[in-house]
Amino acid sequence: MNTTQEPTQEKDYFWVYIAGLVCAVIVVLMFVRGGEHEKYQAAKAAVAEDSANSAYRDTSAYSDSALRK
Question: What residues contact 57, with CB distance under 8 A and at least 6 apart?
Answer without folding.
Answer: 47, 51
